[in-house]
Amino acid sequence: MTLTLVVITALVFDFTNGFHDTGNAMATSIATKALPPRTAVGLSAILNLVGAFLSVEVALTVTNGVINIQDASGAPREEFLADGGQAILLILLAGLVGGIVWNLLTWLFGLPSSSSHALFGGLIGAAIAGLGIQGVKWVGDGTTLDGVVGKVILPGLMSPVIALIVAAIGTALVYRITKGVAEKYRNSGFRWGQIGSASLVSLAHGTNDAQKTMGVITLALIASGHWSDLTAVPFWVKAACAVAIAAGTYIGGWRIIRTLGKGLVEISAPQGMAAEASSAAVILVSSQMGFALSTTHVATGSILGSGVGRRGAKVNWKVATRMLLAWAITLPAAGAVGALMWLLGHTLGGLFGALVVFGLLVASASLMYWYSRRTPVDSKNVNDDWVPEDLRGDPELFGATAFPQRDIAPASAPKKKKKRKKAKV
Known about the structure:
By secondary structure, this protein is mainly α. It is about 70% helix and about 0% strand. The protein has one domain.
């Protein structure tokens, strides 16, 4: 029963990963009107589904490179196989809950934080709580290119910087090469190009992010004795994760799409194509190398780079700063939730403890969804003009600290017409 809860929770995480990260691929195409919003998320969902079957390198990184489940010979440690693997199953369940809660909270605020780092943070926090510091495979076999440091932390730090530089150079080159082309024709042509580049990002996203949940489920199967191959993933796991992330993508994380598409840079079609092409290149290379990087970090770095590379473009550094702060606390925040959930489940013990942890997840997710309906964002208002402090929350609910300007109307609110004074005769 605990294994079933872990599999269900993992697929729920995959679903939240899908709608949390839709903006990584499609925010710029939606913002430049290269694609209608609903068409964009539908296309992204299909390509995420396809991309999930193209590689398993990242999945194996999650299975073997985060929680230290192997002995010196490379075989699974016996204590994890005892009692149906209950010890590791509770750690995985608690870690997944930590990742999901952080995903939903940042989605509620419209902050494009990393789903990947939320997952790893939750797993690391639960593993430390359950096994101690040695329960995490920090550097693998003693090199910095393996384990959490080499496969998660370093790529997370380097990838947005690399994407920003590549996008800035690409944007500058695009505008230099097309300098003599009329803006009308330039934008029209690049909008068509954006369809291809955004599609490539969606495909790349499937090869990286869908893999992470596959790795968690495979690890759960190994712990419970239902799978023994540390170098492969069962086909049904691939299929289930692919469908879950595609379904989440189709829902469309409109709050985050709005922040990426309208809140950072006022994007033109050439910028959008440069940003998407940069994101796709970085993500695909990383997937082949087994780096479990954050596609959100890459996409955001590319969008900022497109603003830096275009002369005269304005970058909203206030929103960017908030995002950076969210990135900085993602791992520890999700880790704290994961550790707390493990302590609760372990204290209550057995299946009852696992059920209580799962019940708390359902309750918190329902509460955040209900809050989100107070200021809805959807395909109809996702492209409305960005206003100061527009991070799609409820100012009365979250207070003046998060939303200093309480009198700001939702982005979809109609503008008031100014009354003209009659001239005196």
